[in-house]
Amino acid sequence: LKRSHLKVRFCTNDSQKSRGELVGLLRRLGFDISEEEVTSPAPATCQILKERGLRPHLLIHEGVRSEFEEIDTSNPNCVVIADAGEGFSYQNMNKAFQVLMELENPVLISLGKGRYYKETSGLMLDVGAYMKALEYACGIKAEVVGKPSPEFFKTALQAIGVEAHQAIMIGDDIVDDVGGAQRCGMRALQVRTGKFRPTDEHHPEVKADGYVDNLAEAVALLLQHADK
Amino acid sequence: LKRSHLKVRFCTNDSQKSRGELVGLLRRLGFDISEEEVTSPAPATCQILKERGLRPHLLIHEGVRSEFEEIDTSNPNCVVIADAGEGFSYQNMNKAFQVLMELENPVLISLGKGRYYKETSGLMLDVGAYMKALEYACGIKAEVVGKPSPEFFKTALQAIGVEAHQAIMIGDDIVDDVGGAQRCGMRALQVRTGKFRPTDEHHPEVKADGYVDNLAEAVALLLQHADK
């Protein structure tokens, strides 16, 4: 893939890890990739915070804190939540809630809105559940940064200078990956790995432009078409 | 009040304390009251669990655990959440979530659905926020036991053998107390204490049948009418 003229961008909703950690993980899995090739919610959020002069109270995992190093968190005027894992204690949630309730115009930014994810130890509650808890308690609506938000996909496209209609998204989540990319004007392949479930191929609302058994098959398919 | 022929029932949404604790608290405040005069979500939930053969996984505060002493919690086929306070750790929430996801027909019972309450230390997240988190993560709808549910008010009326149209509810929450009681066919007074806010008197959806400055005024009013 790297030897072809195809441009590649890695888009993740992972909000527990910094780009450095993610790249380290992918390199160990054999991917030749650098931090500059990754679009992830944390740096996208930092961009938004800077543009709008927002100073966040952070309810995040320690692993991703380095991404927010340059952000002013004094006298917060918004709350940013990410997949904090064990960090979602009652005390931390209540603190985030209290910060929001003290604001005249409470702004809650959520890095993704996933319901849960799978670990070897079992299913794990994701940030979306805690986003809903704060939305309900405060009577507000969160701004979500990450897939399936169109802004997030556009950021990724801009980074490689490609138009939506020229791009193909490959992902395992039928709604957030495939549906999100399609709403953005991209074509989308679903891989039959990871989150994929057989029922996805008959999803009531989203239909992928194609299905592949794994990432290698998707890459082979792309290279085949690129050669023509 | 006790000397009149009026029948009295205390209805609370408190799900952190057992009836014993509640009565102790009220007695210290000068109320002549016994456990038998209290309608609270925990015993109402136990009734439902028994009727439907449900064995709960309990995510509750230690203070209310004694109310569930006689309930079979082995091999759970539902989840019961109450205001667990610090008990709402990530680990405990995730366990409740996993139990629900393993059930074919996940049943989630929530003792109240309050957004937050006020303590001297500040605003505190209530069980409703965590109910919403589990609803979203599991894609289900919880059954709420407590005000404003009509079943809850009816349980209280049955306990004293009074018809809704004969009863008057006195409470401080315009939606859950006043609105709930009125939907049940009762008349309702709002006290201008506790949760009361001046804007409640112009609430877009709920209008109390009367307002009183405090509980003493409400009692005086009732006795005055009862004497006639």
Automatic annotation (TrEMBL), chains A, B:
It is an enzyme of class 3 (hydrolase). It catalyses: diphosphate + H2O = 2 phosphate + H(+). GO terms for molecular function: inorganic diphosphate phosphatase activity; metal ion binding. Its cofactor is Mg(2+). Its main location: cytoplasm. One of its GO terms (cellular component) is nucleus. It is found in: Cytoplasm; Nucleus. InterPro entries: HAD-like_sf, HAD-SF_hydro_IA, HAD-SF_hydro_IIA, HAD_sf, LHPP/HDHD2. Keywords: Cytoplasm, Hydrolase, Magnesium, Metal-binding, Nucleus. Its EC number is 3.6.1.1. Gene3D superfamilies: HAD superfamily/HAD-like (3.40.50.1000). Belongs to the HAD-like hydrolase superfamily. Phosphatase that hydrolyzes imidodiphosphate, 3-phosphohistidine and 6-phospholysine. Has broad substrate specificity and can also hydrolyze inorganic diphosphate, but with lower efficiency. PANTHER family: 4-NITROPHENYLPHOSPHATASE-RELATED, PHOSPHOLYSINE PHOSPHOHISTIDINE INORGANIC PYROPHOSPHATE PHOSPHATASE. This is Phospholysine phosphohistidine inorganic pyrophosphate phosphatase.
